Amino acid sequence: MPSAIRPHRILLLAALVPVLFAGDCKKQPDPLETTETVTEEVQSITLKLQVVSIDPSTVEPNKDVAATVYGSAFSQGARVTVGGKEATGVVVADENTIQLNVPGFAAGVYDVTVINPAGEESTLRQGLMVKENMEDCRFVRVHYGFDSSSLDSEDRAAMEDKIDCYQSGSGPIRVEGHADARG
Predict the structure, then answer these.
(1) Strands across the sheet with 121-130, in order?
(2) In a domain, 37, yes or no
(3) Extended strands (E) in the chain
(4) Contact 89, 100 (CB under 8 A)
């Protein structure tokens, strides 16, 4: 006849089972509580000197123009030439931006070159276009008719007169408007 299990034996079994099956249990360290210092070598990235663009990229002939050259790895003391002529007022704003004054040129297309003090250089081929009779269509003000979603005929004609300028431009065209309180 089987013996009855006594209550104190059940408690003893309940206490021993986790210990018997746990083996070599150790508390896992909390990664947030660790004070261990981890050092890894960070590989630095070396940027190559590069000229990406000049703004403005199209200018009128025989006029000095303030411009900005964009690229990478520009060094303090860098020089800029446009079409072989030294630019003036060169300021390296940061490693990606140079501000300068471009000398006046005859109509044509010119290379833009940045030369760092260490001698490395980069050229944006045909980066600057000097264009005769540049029509300025950047600022055309038009008006909608009162309480209307259509342009007045006079304003529509003003925009149509500039259509060639809009189509030949290299930059974006932004149309701004205003709605009154009625929406």
Answers:
(1) 58-59, 121-130, 108-115, 79-82, 85-86
(2) no
(3) 50-55, 58-59, 65-72, 79-82, 85-86, 88-94, 97-102, 108-115, 121-130
(4) yes
Running DSSP on this structure, what letter comes out for residue 137? -
CB 45 within 8 A of CB 88: no
Q: Are residues 74 and 125 in the same domain?
A: yes
Q: Where in the sequence is the domain holding 156, given as residue range(s)?
A: 135-178
pLDDT band at 175 (very low <50, low <70, confident <90, very high): low
Give the torsion sign (CA, 82, 167, 133, 66): negative
Question: Domain containing 88 — which CATH number?
Answer: 2.60.40.10
**For residue 88, what are the CA distances in angstroms to 3, 126, 168?**
106, 19, 29
Helical (H) or strand (E) element with 160:
helix 153-161
Global pTM reads 0.54
Short-list 74, 64, 62, 55, CA closest to 127: 55
Q: Is 7 left (phi over 0), alpha (psi -120 to 50) or beta?
A: alpha
**Residue positions counted in the chain:** 183
Q: Tens of pLDDT along 36-53?
A: 676 778 787 888 999 999
Q: Which amino acid is at 166?
A: Y
CA 21 to chain centroid: 59
* pLDDT for position 109: 95
